[in-house]
Amino acid sequence: MTSLRHRFWHRFVVYQIGLAILLLFAASRLASASEPAQKYPPTIVFMTDFGVVDDSVAICRGVMYSIMPEVRIVDLTHEVKPFSIGDGARFLFGATPYFPAGTVFVVVIDPTVGSTRKAIVAHSKRGQYFVLPDNGLLTLVDQRDGIDAAREVTNTDWMIGTKLSSTFHGRDIFSPVGAHLARGDDWTNVGPEIAVKDLVRLDWKVATVDDRGLNATVIATDGPFGNLVTNVDAEDFLKLGYARGQDVPVTVGGKQITIKFVKTFSDVPLGQPLLYIDSRGRLGLAVNQNSFAATYGIKPPVALSIPRAK
Question: What is the pLDDT at residue 16?
Answer without folding.
Answer: 57
